[in-house]
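tool=predict chain=A
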Amino acid sequence: MAVLIVGGAGYIGSHTVRVLQRAGRDIIVFDNFEKGHPEAIQGVRIFKGDLRCADDVRAVFKKHTIEAVMHFSAYSLVGESMQCPERYYENNLYGTLNLLNAMQQAGIRYFIFSSTAAVYGEPHYVPIDEVHPTLPTNPYGETKLAVERMLRWFERAYGLKNIRLRYFNAAGADPDGDIGELHSPESHLIPIVLSAALGDRDDIAVYGTDYDTLDGTCVRDYIHVNDLAAAHVLALEYLEDGNPSDVFNLGNGNGYSVQQIIDIARKVTNRDIPVTHTDRRPGDPGTLIAGSDKIKRVLSWKPKFNNIETIIETAWRWHTGAAKTWEK
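tool=predict ok
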């Protein structure tokens, strides 16, 4: 039976589609293409629909025989969530409720949820493990945590087995260079830095230089998108083998500051990257570094691209190649 990839035309979703294809899985992509790219999902069945429309969601389960669902279709901009929280509750929470209701009616047994390190808020300690308190500092993290809590009750009521994967910062691109990260507007650091290296923007804005970090700029844990995608396949296999629901962090366990990323990108691209400094953004924690020992132990997950230069190199290959042929 098929795996339904909700938001499969987006950045992380499309890389997960690619990894599932290589694993021989039958795939259906559900996407409204608000942010996704048709070019990213060649050779798979596509159902165009919107999670906020319950009829669309019910229709895909009526049309296809589906075993499991992976859910990537969320708004994820921290700054925007602070300015327009209603959009995040409507899409991330209400849309997911529509999905879970339709899954329950169709008798779907397995669910892999794309969660986030934003559920933790300001860290009490680093690396952050899965038992760290969850106190989001923005509506984006709050809506993701609300879905996690909702899943607990859906499992209790309907037996829905689920894995919640709390991402840190996904980055990079498939080494083949034909799919990668392309948002409009772009909000993620590495593609913004590379865009400045290409001359597509005048400079890179650094939001805050007074954090309690080595150089005063925010520190984040970057995980290659293919390593992240591979974890979804392992998570589904884990549930299919009869194991219980669980939650796992996904990161490399290494933190790099905004300034360090800029410096490494200058080295990788051999280009100048102009920088301007501005105030902090509301809702941005100073340091987020993952403790990913649990997923390595329980799912035998082994990241292949844990070198930050390699991550940036794959992104640079994408941005200087196939990305130029896609519509933004």
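The mean pLDDT is 95. The longest helix spans residues 85-106.
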